[in-house]
Amino acid sequence: MSYAIIGFGAIGQALARAFARNNIEVAVASRRSPEALLPQAQAIGPTVIPKTLQEAVKADVIILAVLFDGHREVGKALPDWQGKTIIDAMNTNAPVETLDGLPSSAFAAKAFPGARFVKGFNHLPARTLATDPNVQGGHRVVFLSSDDEAAAAQVADLAKRLGFAPVNLGKFDEGGTLVQARGRVWGPLIFQDLFKQAP
């Protein structure tokens, strides 16, 4: 299984740290060249590999950590996203009417035809996401939602490998609305830093 993070700002770098902590190789890409990303990537760890966007989208699992307005541009990188699992770590405060009345992930998914789309890792600030999720004998919670149960399970497994405790909220328009944009009001779970005690 191969992994990539598209977007190498605060959230992208925080997620790259999670991969580096667990010695899992991950490609990183942004609008900047791989050479421009190299110093930051090397500072995080040797398993963080800068690539072009076209190279990064070859990964099996892709984390979208771009600004919400930039997701359509990423979607143009492939004509068909069949076989890809995309983790939507984006947030937006766009009015819900501009999202066709859909949860933000369901709206964004339209730019990635064929992909399996999962909302995740979006509810924690970058500085929190960057820290070790193993805290005081427990694990920091990440909320997931998806209309594809198998994809949600795949991302839950990745979250566990990264040290987090995944909590599946269900489909986008069900429990997933707790961590989706709704007009200019964030979902009730946005920016809640919760922990699950280790068994």
TrEMBL record:
Keywords: Oxidoreductase. The keyword Oxidoreductase applies. GO terms for molecular function: 8-hydroxy-5-deazaflavin:NADPH oxidoreductase activity. It comes from the Bacteria. The keyword Oxidoreductase applies. Residues 3-91 form the Pyrroline-5-carboxylate reductase catalytic N-terminal domain. It holds the Pfam family F420_oxidored. Its EC number is 1.5.1.40. PANTHER family: DUDULIN-RELATED (PTHR14239), F420-DEPENDENT NADP REDUCTASE (PTHR14239:SF0). This is Dinucleotide-binding enzyme.
